[in-house]
Amino acid sequence: MNWVSKKIHLYNVTMGLYMLDWWERCLFNIMVLILLCFIFLNGSRFAIDVYQSHLKVMFMNGGKYDMGIGMPS
Description:
The N and C termini lie far apart (about 60 Å). The chain has one domain (about 5-60). It is elongated. The chain contains two helices and no strands. It is mainly α.
């Protein structure tokens, strides 16, 4: 048993997929992939928004804030 098949077996046993039929396992894996895609896309959107609204302003101004409450000058 190679490393990949061991990891697949561990995934099936951990998630309880070993007792499902092949089509039920396939549906579950498709739902997991869709969920991971949503998480990745929304996380990247959030990271871009944080960069554009906070970090970009901080890098452009050299990191200097006037009032000390996080408002850029």
